[in-house]
Amino acid sequence: QVQLVESGGGLVQAGGSLRLSCAASGRTFSNYSMGWFRQAPGKEREFVSAIRWSGYNTYYAYYADSVKGRFTISRDNAKNTVYLHMNSLKPEDTAVYYCAATSFPVVSGYNTPRTYNYWGQGIQVTVSS
User: CA 77, 112, 82: angle at the middle one, nearest 5?
Assistant: First the structure.
């Protein structure tokens, strides 16, 4: 069983930055593909970013078009943690952000919630205008 705990959310003004962290339990974290999703009130959960494990210590990063160029995903396997660096935040980025993980191989579908079998509890990010 993998547990994911997000931190780093909060209230920030438009144009500001936040860094979300997701700490994971588990001894094989380096083999997990990790994703960030978000859900705004009244909306479906949407893909934000993912870092896909491709074997042999190789990872690929992906971003939703809405955050490309502003958000960066990274991971520190020694700390079992994945990060989402969010810059130039906009009010439309306001949502509950969820960290997700899967230990199964991911080729496609990294942007689909059903790909992931572990989820964090979510953390609020609010961007004021």
Answer: 20
In 3D, which of 86, 124, 117 has the Cα closest to residue 24?
Answer: 117
Phi, psi (rounded to 5 degrees) for 35:
-140, 155
Nearest to 123 by CA among 36, 32, 24: 36
The C-alpha atoms of residue 122 and residue 96 are separated, in whole angstroms, by: 6
Q: How far apart are CA 54 and CA 107, in angstroms?
A: 8
Parallel/antiparallel/unpaired status of strands 81-86 and 123-128? unpaired
Q: Note the pLDDT tens digit of each residue in 24-53.
A: 997 788 899 999 999 999 999 999 999 999
Amino acid identity of residue 41, one-letter, is: P
Please name every residue paired with 123 in a beta bridge, in sequence order, or none if there are none.
97
Q: What is the mean pLDDT of the chain?
A: 95
d(Cα 83, Cα 6) in Å, to the nearest integer? 9
Q: How many CB atoms lie within 10 A of CB 50?
A: 27
Terminus-to-terminus CA distance in the chain, angstroms?
40
The gap from C-alpha 21 to its chain's centroid, in whole angstroms, comes to: 8
